[in-house]
Amino acid sequence: MSKFGRILLYAILIILGLLIGAYTAWTGSAKIPSAEVGQRVFVGEWTADYSIGTSATDPKTRAMVARRGLLALPRSEAVYFTRTTDSDGQALREGCAYAMTGSTQMGSLWWSVTLYDQDDFLPRDAGNYSITVDQFEAAKDFSVSISKNGDLSTRNSGAFDLTLRLYKPSDWVISEPARLALPAVKRLTCEDGS
User: Which residue segment(s) compose the domain that 4 sits in?
Assistant: First the structure.
């Protein structure tokens, strides 16, 4: 093989290796199986990883956080809960309508709920994809609709998930998360009749 042919072969192999490495890093950071997370917390259908934003976070979790674009604050500043199912354990999906109800008092200074589409992005052309405690003024409880034309829009979301952020959580949220009363998400109807 000529010198030029050998250089070309090495260049192709290097580029191929970089492409394979980038692809596996990207797809591997998409979702993290529960078994791989060190400080997983479950509150009803909501889950959180209390190691996010700390030095205890493993490389795969850091890659997932970077890919999803979370501002991973330490848990003394913010706690992130996510859910992918309704109260009956069925996957959240665009073709259904839901009611999310709960208390505005969630053991934090401020909170928000954001809807992310099946690719972990904000839905395209969805309209409103986030709610905050400020929208409910002095009310003790809240109820919002989640549907294509709801308070939280599922338009163009496919199978979606909800992320609840508790900012400046009380100490007991970290030490006793089971005390939290996080919002329920009840499926009302689906376009396919299910």
Answer: 1-30
Q: How many domains does the chain have?
A: 2
Any idea what the Cα angle at residue 51 is, between residues 133 and 131, rounded to 5°?
Answer: 15
**Predicted TM-score (pTM) of this structure:** 0.74
Question: What is the CATH number for 87?
Answer: 2.60.120.600
Of 87 and 1, which is predicted with more confidence?
Answer: 87
| Same-domain status, 138 and 47 | yes
Residues 137 and 179 in one domain: yes
Give the distance, in angstroms, between the CA of residue 75 and the centroid of all CA atoms in the same chain: 16
Per-residue pLDDT of 21-66, as tens digits, reads 877 766 655 544 433 445 789 999 999 988 776 666 666 666 666 6
Which strand ranges, in their side-by-side order, compose the sheet holding 78-83?
A: 40-43, 46-49, 78-83, 161-169, 108-116, 130-132
Residues 70 and 165 in one domain: yes
**Which amino acid, residue 34?**
S
